[in-house]
Amino acid sequence: MRDKHRKSVLRFSHFSMGTTFEIILAEKDEDYARQISQAVFTEIDRIKDIISRFDPTSEIGQINRLRAGHSLRIGVETYECLTTALMVQSQTRGAFDVNVGSLMKYREMEISESRPPRTDIQKQLVLSQKSHGYMVKYLPTKEMEGPTEMNLDLGAIGKGYALDCTLEILSDWGVERVLVHGGTSTALALGSPPEGPGQKKGWPVRIGGDWECPNTPKKFFLKDRALSGSGTEVKGDHIFDPRKNKPAEGHLSAWVSHPSAAVADALSTAFMVMNTEEVRVYCKERSDVWALVVVDHKTCEVFNPDIASK
User: What pTM does this model have?
Assistant: First the structure.
């Protein structure tokens, strides 16, 4: 008989970063599980305070106010998050850009489709690691055809990065089986649930959407990796294409699984911008990326499907 203080799964929720985070813990004493959840939510709030663009005192807020040629000392969290963002931007050839906000001011300009204005954050923002800490320097380039100001927005990678940061907390508390998600758009799982259809395969996570594609999964079993989704069904055409300076037209929705929640978060946005062939090439070159893109309500493509069965 199960002890009255124990349950197979315990859930706790917390509002942060404009959404509701939830942690689902397996086989833990309820009081102990509550302490774990509070430690996890405290970490998420800490990351939010560092990377929020809405807080002028946050590190991202301060970077956005840097004048040309000036530097700012930053913490490891901002350094890691920006480094990951720049990596994904480079890998996706600009489909992902955390400085896209600076481009949105130029939407009303009459611009040639072949040469739209572009940010060049990889040249504008110089990140460095020195003996006395991490630094960022703002160096706008005079030859740029587009905006030179910084308007960093980590909304498309921040929730995922915050989830990655909880892994160390969970390890410290000895947690081996858990699912943490931010607003259902990005989830990170360790181990498998104690009961149910995913007991051995992983935590069952629903892939949302009103599309009806034959032989395409509506559920992903998540184990020791992350899953993130982006789409137009809830918020409409809210994803911007930094390469063409207009709303993204690549796909109706995109779902990505990767060992890193930050990378999965960023790629789900990038894959909304990229066309299907670009996504195919990207996933072919990276065997650790699983992706599902919805081209239209009857057409879907799944890349690296074997990952879902491992």
Answer: 0.91
